[in-house]
Write a structure and sequence with these properties.
Layout (H helix, E strand, L loop, with lengths): L1 H28 L4 E6 L2 E8 L2 E13 L3 E12 L9 E11 L5 E4 L1 E3 L3 E3 L4 E5 L8 E9 L20 E11 L7 E12 L5 E12 L1
Antiparallel strand pairs: 1-2, 3-4, 4-5, 5-11, 6-12, 7-8, 9-12, 10-11, 12-13
Keywords: Signal
Protein name: Extracellular protein
Organism: Secundilactobacillus collinoides (Lactobacillus collinoides)
Length: 212
Amino acid sequence: MSHSIGRKIRIIAVMVALFGIGLVTNSVSAHAAYFNYYQNNQPKKLHKTYTSKKSYSVKKTFTFNTNYKLKVNNVYLYQVSKKHSNYPTWAKITGTAYNNTDNGYYRFGAISAFDGIVTNYVGELYPVSSTVPNHFAFSQTTSLSPKMFNIKSNGTYTDFLGPHKSEKFELLLHSKKTVTKQGETSLRVNTICINSTGNYNSGYAWVNVNLK
């Protein structure tokens, strides 16, 4: 009788152990997927949960003023539920910036005739067709590039990406409308090349990507 009870106890213990393993496995697989975003160009990773994701390979390198390079790697589209964001669709452009000069500096920015260097439109994803509305807006506050975005109130151009340095970047955009596909899209990333005297020229990456 005692042997029978012992066997039952062992069987129950094994079943409990297996059930526990099943619970752990399920809890891991049930974890929501997320992408990284940032706050005010700080490297601490924040997470935003998404419901679906599309990836698009670009793998293009652009050269400006001979020794400044911008490599664009990928574009990602994320669909996000209302409880996690006011923007239902997010996009991310990833890549690496290279400064191969001996005494120049490199940064993100565009040249405005009225405001000088601005950072409102560093990353752009707009439809090639004029009949398709452009929903994406660049979000500098959630993007990351520690040196290329190193804008200080009392800083100088030497605070940006220095000679013989490189840096990875993540540029975030978002849309107030749900964008599951946009078709043929112009991807543009705006940069500024600065020489040793502080004079600057624009250099932008521009390539079409089919966000299907």
